[in-house]
């Protein structure tokens, strides 16, 4: 089943960038030109979304597999080359460390981790060639 997910982002007068989602407004810093602005930058939002997806799937898969998770810590580090004009903008690599608190064996947890990886739409999007289409409209009206 195909599901459409839509967000709307906007800014004005060099203020924070705001993204409207179905249930929330997310505020983020646009770049380092405005250090007085507070909030995560877009790169941190990408990694935070990845961590949130892993957490939700991790809990779901653990329940399906009968694994009792007392807690789950997810650390994600992305290496981003920001100096000069990089050959390829974006993360050079992303490292994810999962630290589940569980009585399950290492083998059981490794199988759990592989299933979470296999079912993650964010992981799939980042590691596979997902088509992205960029459209431009010269003028718009914001209400």
Shape: elongated
Q: Major sheet, described briefly?
A: 3 strands, antiparallel
Q: CATH-wise, what's the superfamily of the largest domain?
A: K homology (KH) domain
Quickly give the structural class. Answer: alpha+beta
Describe what this molecule looks like in 3D.
By secondary structure, the chain is an alpha+beta fold. It has 2 domains: 1-35, no CATH class; 40-127, 2-Layer Sandwich (GMP Synthetase, Chain A, domain 3), CATH 3.30.300.20. The chain contains 3 helices and 5 strands, in the order βββαββαα. It has helices spanning 42-65, 106-119, 121-127; strands at 8-10, 17-20, 25-28, 71-80, 91-101. The strands form 2 sheets. Strands 1-2-3 form a 3-stranded antiparallel sheet, with no helix packed on it. Strands 4-5 form a two-stranded antiparallel sheet. A hairpin with a 4-residue loop joins β2 and β3 (25-28). α1 (42-65) crosses α2. The longest helix has 24 residues, at 42-65. It is elongated, with a radius of gyration of 18 Å. The two termini are 32 Å apart.
